Amino acid sequence: MKVLRISAQDTYEIRQQMLRQGRPIEEVHFPKDDDDQTFHLGAFIEGKLVSVASFYFENHPDLPDEYQYRLRGMATLADHQHIGLSSALLRMAFPIIKQNLCSLLWCNARTSAMGFYQKVGFEKVGEEFEIPTIGPHVLMFKKII
Ligand SMILES: CC(C)(COP(=O)(O)OP(=O)(O)OC[C@H]1O[C@@H](n2cnc3c(N)ncnc32)[C@H](O)[C@@H]1OP(=O)(O)O)[C@@H](O)C(=O)NCCC(=O)NCCS
Predict the structure, then answer these.
(1) Distance from the CA of 86 to the center of ligand 1, in angstroms?
(2) How far, in Å, is the centroid of ligand 1 from the Cα of 82?
(3) CB-defined site of ligand 1, < 6 Å
(4) Average pLDDT value for residue range 53-81
(5) What is the 74 CA–ligand 1 centroid distance (Å)?
(6) What is the pLDDT of residues 69-104, one digit of tens each?
(7) Which sequence spans correspond to the domains of the chain?
């Protein structure tokens, strides 16, 4: 397994398959995908991209840290889940976020994935909320120290 930096475009297929199935392709183009401070990571197995995650320099209004990153589009193809790929992407991301002088990573986590985020050290804040057409979510964060 290899973790590499990838482009926004590289993430679209897995995003659509795992996060926006049956939805228009435009929905997997996220705002700020191509910003300078944004980075995308991918895990490859035998040369095939099987897991992706994207990181944006973006603050959440309810979180106090001055400089924060946001995690979006975290997904591993179904037949490669539970073997540590998303965790490996996060381990690669933490030092990059720290190098960019940010002290916190947050995400709107699907409630179905909360267990994953808790395992990798995220904490939940506030109440569950609904994102239309996608489902129930919770705000979660992890301090990057
Ligand atoms: C959530 C997701 C990204 C995790 O990816 P993954 O590559 O399977 O994650 P890992 O293998 O690194 O998992 C790390 C740990 O979390 C556990 N875990 C993974 N998914 C979990 C889940 N949905 N609930 C509870 N625990 C979970 C793993 O078993 C592993 O535990 P271990 O360390 O005891 O072995 C993946 O299941 C996925 O793509 N889901 C569909 C898309 C999605 O919901 N993305 C999140 C959007 S907010």
Answers:
(1) 7
(2) 6
(3) 18-19, 51, 74-76, 81-87, 109-110, 112-113, 115-116, 119
(4) 98
(5) 9
(6) 999 999 999 999 999 999 999 999 999 999 999 999
(7) 2-143
CB 86 within 8 A of CB 51: yes
- Mean pLDDT for the chain overall: 97
Measuring from atom 39 of ligand 1, which residue has the nearest CA? Answer: 75
Q: Give 50-109 as a DSSP string.
A: EEEEEEEE---TT---SSEEEEEEEEE-GGGTTSSHHHHHHHHHHHHHHHTT--EEEEEE
The protein residue with its alpha carbon nearest to ligand 1, atom 3, reads 75
Q: Tell me which CATH homologous superfamily contains domain 2-143.
A: Gcn5-related N-acetyltransferase (GNAT) (3.40.630.30)
Band (145; pLDDT cuts 50, 70, 90): confident
Please identify which residue in the block is written with the tokens 């973790």.
Answer: 3
What percent of the chain is predicted at pLDDT more than 70?
100
List phi, psi (to 5°) of 69: -115, 150
